[in-house]
Design goal:
- The protein has about 450 residues and is of the alpha/beta class.
- The chain contains 19 helices and 14 strands.
- It folds into 4 domains: about 120 residues, Rossmann fold; about 170 residues, Rossmann fold, CATH 3.40.50.300; about 80 residues, Helicase, Ruva Protein, domain 3 (Orthogonal Bundle); about 60 residues, Homeodomain-like (Arc Repressor Mutant, subunit A).
- Helices cover about 50% and strands about 10% of the residues.
- The two termini are about 40 Å apart.
Length: about 450
């Protein structure tokens, strides 16, 4: 279904003219001859873009703009200005209008601005959905020292505009770290644009990155660099770029400007770059497969995401989270996992990291009919994992005590007083235990919606 464009103009001839050209371009169209009628349609229908005349009877376009922005600040609004209203049109930009066009209308210009506004609108919607999904799934779960250090790094880096190079094995969550940095940055209200350097064919990546000017048969296309203007460009698996593309990317990020393929106009871009790789780029440089100058440009702030085997103590938290998440997703009663099965998961080496764990838990939620997942339900080779026992009596005691406290905190909804009473210890003593084991009750309450 095409995008819905609302035309607001008191001149019927202009509405009909715009309707014809927009419908020819594949858009759905709604019309309003007054500000009041426009606001009724805007409130009732899922409008994707508004073409709004400044001079309207009873209620002028500026007041309509203000009300629409209060109702839905994301929907782009292009103002239509008549003779002598250019100054007013410029003021509307400050009030949130996307752009303006002048009468008599240049229909080609209007279509170009409409296409651009809609592309940016849907990109922002997608970013908003992804941000909500990230907040809901909270994949960066863990209380282990490596995860605490990672979150501390993100908090320090995010508010700055420094470029970041994220390293780590496949499946560790590098993209999620990049999105978290963007979500906490000053650019959070602007696009987060991802480029999967490994997935785009070699003959297409330049067009995807830099765009093309277009011709009589195809319209201009804005590349990823332009789409990320004022936001964040995420170069995922940057180590998979060819040397030819690396050279062009280097030039753009040095000059912060580009020319589309087939174009002559120099287009400035204001972006923050976050790159990721599962390769050792210093080794790739020695092999002649990665440019050293590009590496130094990208590696301003290095962040390493640890593999799951280096933070095994986070596995119970991750498993618990994924069990709840997928049980809810598929409308099932929440499943649990037996202590013996959990011990096997903690002993497994997880070559696919958190992604492998997540996929396995999803499969178990779907395929295991009973409420508790046991050892026999685990797939090969996890079911044959040899559990590594604690090396000392102290480690064994601490591991048991931590798990014991966690289970009863969950039982009592993370209520410290009730848990301490049940365990037969003072609240202050329980707090000391929580601090020693790196357990943060307030954070856990938020994660569990308590």
């Amino acid at each position: 279904m095409g995008n819905l464009v609302l035309i607001v103009d008191d001149e019927k001839s202009i509405r009909e003219s715009l309707r014809g050209i927009l419908e020819d371009e594949g858009y759905r169209v709604a019309e309003a001859a007054s500000g009041k009628e426009a606001l009724e349609i805007f409130s009732k229908d899922a409008v994707d873009l508004v073409l709004l005349d400044i001079w309207l009877p009873e209620m002028d376009g500026v007041d309509v703009l203000k009300e629409m922005k209060e109702k839905n600040p994301l929907v782009p609004i292009i103002m239509i200005s008549g003779h002598g209203t250019i100054e007013t049109a410029v003021k509307t930009i400050k009030l949130g209008a996307y752009d303006f066009v002048e009468k008599p209308l240049n229909l080609d210009e209007l279509i170009i601005k409409t296409e651009r506004a809609l592309r940016e609108y849907h990109l922002r919607l997608e970013n908003l959905r992804l941000r909500e999904k990230l907040e809901e799934e909270r994949i960066l779960i863990g209380e282990s020292p490596p995860m605490k250090a990672l979150r501390d790094q993100i908090k320090l880096v995010a508010p700055t505009d420094g470029w970041v190079l994220i390293t780590g094995e496949s499946g560790t969550g590098k993209e999620l770290v990049a999105r978290e940095i963007h979500a906490l940055s000053i650019r959070k209200d602007y696009p987060f644009v991802e480029v999967s350097c490994a997935a785009i064919p070699e003959d297409m990546i330049e067009k995807e990155l830099f765009g093309w000017e277009g011709n009589t048969e195809s319209p201009p296309h804005r590349g990823k660099f332009e789409l990320a203007h004022r936001g964040t460009l995420f170069l995922d698996e940057v180590g998979d770029m060819s040397l030819k593309v690396q050279a062009k990317v280097l030039r753009v990020i040095q000059e912060l400007s580009l020319q589309r393929i087939g174009g002559r106009e120099t287009i400035p871009v204001d972006i923050r770059i976050i790159a990721s790789t599962n390769k050792n780029l210093e080794e790739e440089i020695e092999k002649g497969l990665f440019r050293e100058d590009l590496y130094f440009r990208l590696n301003v702030i290095p962040i390493h995401v640890p593999p799951l085997r280096e933070r095994r103590e986070d596995i119970p938290l991750l498993v618990d989270h994924f069990l709840k998440h997928f049980s809810k997703k598929y409308g099932m009663k929440p499943k649990t996992i037996s202590p013996e099965a959990l011990s096997l998961l903690m002993g497994y080496h997880w070559p696919g990291n958190v992604r492998e764990l997540r996929n396995m838990v999803e499969r178990l939620v779907i395929m295991v009919p009973k409420e508790e997942i046991g050892v026999r339900d685990l797939p090969h080779p996890i079911s044959e994992t040899q559990v590594q026992p604690p090396s000392t009596l102290r480690e064994a005691r601490e591991a048991f005590e931590k798990e014991y406290i966690l289970r009863h905190l969950e039982q009592f909804g993370w209520n410290i007083s009730r848990t301490a009473e049940y365990l037969g210890i003072e609240r202050s003593h329980l707090y000391k235990k929580l601090k020693a084991y790196g357990i943060e009750p307030e954070k856990r309450r938020k994660e569990n919606g308590v």
